[in-house]
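Issue 218. Parser rejects a valid record. Input:
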Amino acid sequence: MDLIVGFVRGSHGLTGEVRIESASGRYEHIVALKEVTLVQKENSAKYAVENARLAGNVLYMKFAGVDSPEAAKKLNGAALRTSRENACPLDEGEWYVEDLKKCSLVYFGEENGLGNDVAPTDEVRQANSRTVVGSITDVLEGGASELLEVLLSEDCDVLSEEVKLNANKKPRTVYVPFNETHVGKVDIPNKSVQLMHLWILE
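Output the parser choked on:
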């Protein structure tokens, strides 16, 4: 699956160059790209990279066939996607947004024999049921930390109807700070992220 590695943030100069913002804050892997897929809303197209250069903290990129400021401006806001192999390498405690977006937000409460501040081991996970409180639909930039965008589950039995549903009786979307205070174990292979406290959903 392709991953988003950056975004076009405007045109530069007269030759069709664009400014690129990295999704990870790192640029070496983007400079090395030979081809990218640019995605704008429902449209996507592949572009060969003619040139990429770092100037201070700014990355400039030139795509084949984009040869004027007018053509470059049409790409503003586009997301750059590339293969997982060409994406930014992950350090410990880092995850790709696309992988997080596939995960369920799960809660291991006192009723399951766990304290809210305990990350369950594999043995505990097998011996105790977990409660799925919602599904992660996106990861957004926040103030002190990124935010998990979560669509709450209608059939979650540890949440009240007032918490789960909005005024139109549809599942609510809530935002959970993605930090160690509110989020425990991130288990990408099993597609789950542990929620530490239910009150953050209220």
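Fixed in the parser; the record now loads. The chain has five helices and twelve strands.
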